[in-house]
Amino acid sequence: LYIAPGNAGTANLGENIDIDISNFDNIKQVVVEKDINMIVVGPEIPLVNGIRDYFENDLSLKSLSIIGPDKNGARLEGSKDFAKEFMFKYNIPTASYKTISKNNIDEGLNYLEKLKPPFVLKADGLAAGKGVLIIEDILDAKTSLKEMINGKFGDASSNVVIEEYLQGIEASIFIITDGKNYKLLPPSKD
Question: Is the confidence at residue 62, as pLDDT, over 90?
Answer without folding.
Answer: no
